[in-house]
Design a protein that fits this description.
By secondary structure, the chain is of the alpha+beta class. Helices cover about 40% and strands about 20% of the residues. The chain has a four-stranded antiparallel β-sheet with strand order 2-3-1-4, with helices on both faces. The longest helix is centred in the C-terminal third of the chain and has 12 residues, at about 125-135. Bound molecules: uridine-5'-diphosphate and magnesium ion.
């Protein structure tokens, strides 16, 4: 059965800063994702706080929000069959040290906080996150 989905991907500041935008996009395209919309932006810390609200009780929340708003990011809507899980697989584990060969975080991630990419973790959150960045 066909199950075309959309998910939200972010190329985080550490990767944009190292000019990895095109390499990472190439990995998405080579893995069958279609980039439906994209924009390069810098967000306010308050916007990062809203985006990462699920993590507000975590000890890393403040640093995470400061980091995501610290420089330009590339936000993209990706489309593919089972895009949400497929993107999580392609990204690899949150900590690049644990990420498998062939994943974006294994290849480009620096550390658990500077792990190069974000990807929605469920179809429901994908809708919320896509709306957050592309509601216009
Ligand atoms: N993060 C962190 N320290 C931690 C756990 C997470 O800095 O101990 C950051 C990391 O950048 C991660 C983000 O918080 O990508 C969101 O955490 P989550 O558990 O949702 O990981 P993800 O879904 O990005 O793999
Ligand atoms: Mg997450």
């Amino acid at each position: 059965m066909s199950n075309l989905e959309r998910t939200l991907s972010i190329i985080k500041p550490d990767a944009v800063e190292r000019n990895l935008e095109n390499e990472i996009k190439k990995m998405f395209i080579e893995n069958g994702f279609k980039i439906i919309k994209e924009k390069k932006i810098q967000i306010e810390k308050s916007e990062a706080e809203t985006f990462y609200k699920v993590h507000e009780t975590k000890p890393f929340y403040n640093d995470l929000c400061a980091y995501l708003s610290s420089g330009p990011i590339v936000v993209m809507i990706l489309e593919k069959e089972n895009a949400v899980l497929g993107n999580r697989d392609l990204m690899g584990a949150t900590n690049p040290k644990d990420a498998k060969d062939g994943t974006i975080r294994k290849k480009y991630g620096i550390s658990i906080d500077k792990n190069s990419v974000h990807g929605s973790d469920s179809v429901e959150n994908a809708k919320i996150e896509i709306d957050f960045f592309f509601r216009d």
